[in-house]
Amino acid sequence: MPGDKSIAHRAVLMAALAKGTSLICGVPDGDDVARSAQAVQMLGAEVSPLSGGVQVHGGRDRLFEPCDVLDMGNSGTGMRLLAGIAAALPWLSVLSGDRSLRSRPMARVVEPLREMGAHIDGRRNGDNAPLVVRGGNLKGIYYRPPQASAQVKSAVLLAGLSAQGDTTVEEKVPTRAHTEELLERFGAKVRVEPELSSMHLGGRRVTVSPSELHPVELTVPGDPSQAAYWVVAGCLIPHSEVTVKGVYSGPCRNGFLDVLERMGADLKVRSDQSGTLDITSRFGPITGTTVYEQEVPALIDEVPVLAVAAAMAHGDTSFHGLGELRVKESDRLNTIAELISSLGGRAEVVGDDLVVSGSAGEPLTGGPVDSHGDHRIAMAAAVGGLAATGKTVIRSWESVDTSYPSFAQDMSRLLQ
Ligand code: S3P
Which of 79, 201, 230, 375 has the least CB density, counted as fewest CB within 10 Å? Predict the structure, then answer.
């Protein structure tokens, strides 16, 4: 599996702040993480490619005011996390991106960062990029994000590294924990309550104190969001058995496995010595289920491919509380419903819910699909298309280059 995109972004950004040389292996090839690497280079970190990874010479004393716009391409994670870092840097940074990224909401990070003392402006009073950030002189805050968002939590915590006093983010529903896990790895003073290892399902509080980061050597584990395409393909395509190896296992990233298990999918999940997962899926009948709002942060990026699975299940599947999908790389709530109809299935958006009617195991017809420039719609369409009787042609396929450029190649290998 390609290395996890969320972890790789954070590792590159934190390595730029850590004084010394970090080695990060298993960095995925896509454009998104490359944008974070390019941004930290423009800020003065030295980033050199290694086979399968990067070496970063970082440290706050190396960084300087960037002489051009930090262009984050299509990457919401890149822009929001970098906004947290730029908020703490005592100069002007301008963050922009492609047309999709420039239309995505940024007030969710801009508001808490302003509360910490950063001066940030942008289009629509700072809700849309380009964002102009004059950072420095921050004070710690206690913040309760109104939406369940790991990106918001991360931006605030990264800014908190250089703030005066402690910075706490309290989440009603926990989101992926890569920032707190990696901050600890990079030597920051970070406290998580209740601890990440506890089985607690309610809210969580993460506090960071002003800290210097130390360089690390780490290998990014495989990306569960990318693994999900192959796991679902194994479930839907007659006579298949697919194994994905080395997949990250941790809080709020493996929810798709719970849902597929509830659907009765034939799955075997083994944890290896390093704590990563090997997952085998086999073709077999699956049934519809209900996905509850509290589960959504743990499978937020896997909804498109889970919806494809649901379209072939026995019975209907309801996904509740998908409002956040409206502000992803596309209006993903609607583009998923359109994807399922284009493949010959049935799906309906009801408020913030998505209801997918199962075909009772009958293959879909396939058909022309518009990815709307959204990599996850394109890859979910490819999985649905593989399991369909007719031809599926995917418009704007090149969007997969943001996260998984070798997806088509890997798919051909699977079919040999
Ligand atoms: C991400 C968090 C999620 C996810 C995105 C990556 C991250 O976004 O959809 O692809 O790396 O923190 P939100 O936290 O904003 O929901």
Answer: 201
